[in-house]
Amino acid sequence: MPKVTMTVNGMAVSGEVEGRTLLSDFLRDDLGLTGTHVGCDTSQCGACVVHLDGAPVKACSVFALDAEGAKVTTIEGMANPDGSLGVIQKAFQDHHGLQCGFCTPGMVMSAAALLKENRKPTEAEIRAYLDGNICRCTGYHNIVKAVLAASGQDVSRIAAE
Amino acid sequence: MYAFEFARPRTIAEAVKALKRDEALALGGGQTLIPTLKNRLASPSVLVSLTGIAEMKGVCRTDDGMVAVGGGTPHAVVAREARKLYPALAALAGGIGDPAVRSRGTIGGSLANNDPAACYPAAVLASGATIVTNRRKIPADKFFRGMFSTALAEGEIIIEVRFPVPRKASYQKFRQPASRFALTGVFVARFDDGVRVAVTGASEGGVYRWKEAEKALTAAFRPSAVEGLKVSPKGMIGDLHGTPEYRANLVRVLTARAVAAA
Fold this sequence. Notes:
The complex is a heterodimer of chains A (161) and B (262). Chain A has helices spanning 23-30, 87-94, 104-117, 123-129, 141-150; strands spanning 3-8, 11-16, 49-52, 55-58, 71-73.
């Protein structure tokens, strides 16, 4: 089987994969990084969003071999070095931006991608950017609130749900 | 997914060679092809990924004033890099799918697939762009051959798309919210020598030029110019999202909106 080498959360990793092995499968099954969730496996739900060379991608719709030499960041790479929650993760916790938590890894990764290109997004910009991330529990309000809070903006004007 | 061998060439020449193998298939960003493979609707023996070819990526202005987009350029990059060079094209690219899809999906992949509801074909046809492949240059008017069908031969790769930049342009998309494709989309481009109007998402024949509107808008470039025009529902797509009549009406409404926004 062909070998693939990439950097995941700052660590050099490699493994033998099939041509058809998806990045999501490589991360979960070969590396044991099960924080990347596979919800739909049809690139609709966004639970599997990771960063590939800095850009958000649905890991279920990228082949592992296409990530050869790339830098990948998963939800496991979002915590602070001491293991405490990162800013976006903490905001999700503080503002109840999750219920069952299944979509949360993808939500956090998409939010991180947004805040990298737009440090102070408006509520509408946050909603538009999270278009490809589906949550069946929260009704989104608290997720939007969490992202707004993570960007250091006032969230008091958004009604509590 | 059926098993296949995966090739990731680094140059166009290597990719062309790899695609000569038996039952080889080119892979762009994979946002359509990977779901297709998962459903076992395609079974290549070799999948030739074009994502590692640096010479096929990026946006620039050519010496003759056109905007050239590399065939392997993801939508997100076009949305960013074409913003000043061709704002209507950048806006269209920034409205395809969702952010994660835009990171991967490419203009070449979209055009080669020619989904009848894809956005890019409308921009290419309305702009009168040229599709540059590893073998030849194909004018937009000769490229699209109906739903999921193009002038591309087997193993032919879209290297670059060259867009003449209109004086004014706008793409108006009535979004199908679940798929994020165009339920119907209209790209209007006003050049010094006339107006071109391309419609996607509506016709069973895929993207097409609405010549009557082009004539009316060339005579008078204002939304009211298309008000009196009739669009026949015959040959329009009918599905659970909209009837042929509904789509026919959208064609006129979106054209007027595009003219107003241009």
